[in-house]
Amino acid sequence: MTSKTEGSTSPDKLAPRPQEIPKVNKVTPGDITASLKAGFSDFLARPFLSGFFGLFYAAFGILFVWCLVWLGKIWMIIPAAVGFPLVAPFAAAGLYEMSRRLQKGESFGWFEIFTVMARQRKREMGWMAFVTLFIFWVWIYQVRLWLAITLKNTSFSDFDGFLNIVFFTPQGWTFLAIGTCAGAALSVVLFSVTVVAMPMLLDRETNFVSAMLTSIRVVTENPLVMLSWAVIISAAMLLSMVPAFLGLIFTLPVLGHTTWHLYQRAVPPAEGEPVRQTP
Q1: How many CA atoms lie within 13 A of 221 on its CB side?
Q2: Per-residue DSSP letters for 15-61?
Q3: Contact 169, 64 (CB under 8 A)
Q4: Any long-range contacts for 78-83 (C-beta under 8 Å, 24+ apart)?
């Protein structure tokens, strides 16, 4: 007599197990220092390829500002420049891949790095790009809203006139105060969901929701240290944009490489967890 269970599929094979959120480590100031050293070392190991990503980001920033001037959107220059670093984590995907291969002692060239970046559009990284760009769009929209509320019908004929109104009038001070608070809140949200999510998605076979939840846990369990890292990133990026975005040629690669090493220290690999294999 044939058993009813003979040939049946076990429950484990009927449906995939839900993916568990990885554990996170305690992050210390020493981890940030060590990650910065490792990031700088990665930059020196492949300065031209690393610098290319910084150069591309800087060139895009210059083109973006020029387009705003050409379109007469003078009011958008400052908020766009301030919000521009928000998309940096996604722009650093190639840098994460470089650090991953350097860490494993693998050889690579320009073709291998750009191939991996192109393949990210078929993985979960695209969803994280959507999250990043959506928050950037919210940032620009809320600046336009508060600009209309605080400065009302004020017109800006040129950039100098805009700066004069914003920095030397009571209405401008109100706009700056509100915009700074709103921008800080959005920056904290974006930093929390992306700080380790981007390198994690490139490194592991996981979904973007798990990556974001892991990133949030790293921040909430290490608030002071991660806040310090956020301040370092913000200050370095903003200062790098002062000389016509050209400082980003060096700053972006170093920060990108550093983020990879900080992710490695913050999120230990789980036993049996799928890790992306080098193609």
Answers
A1: 13
A2: SPPPPPPPP-PPP-HHHHHHHHHHHHHHHHHSHHHHHHHHHHHHHHH
A3: no
A4: 78/162, 78/166, 79/139, 79/140, 79/143, 79/179, 79/183, 80/140, 81/241, 82/183, 82/238, 83/136, 83/139, 83/140, 83/183
Domain boundaries defined on the chain: 26-260
Each of the 279 residues of the chain gets a pLDDT tens digit; together they read: 444 444 444 434 434 444 566 889 999 999 999 999 999 999 999 999 999 988 888 888 788 878 877 877 766 776 776 666 666 666 688 899 999 999 998 888 888 888 887 777 667 777 877 888 788 788 878 888 887 788 776 666 666 777 787 788 888 888 888 877 887 888 888 889 988 998 998 888 888 888 999 999 999 999 999 999 998 988 888 888 777 778 889 998 999 999 999 999 999 876 555 555 555
Closest CA to 83 of 68, 98, 99, 94: 68
For residue 190 the two structure tokens come to: 């974006």
CA-closest candidate to residue 196, choices 160, 230, 244, 154: 230
- The reported pTM is 0.79
- The structure tokens listed for 128 are 């994280």
CB 206 within 8 Å of CB 19: yes
Is 197 in contact with 211 (CB distance < 8 Å)?
yes
Structure tokens at 75: 């009011």
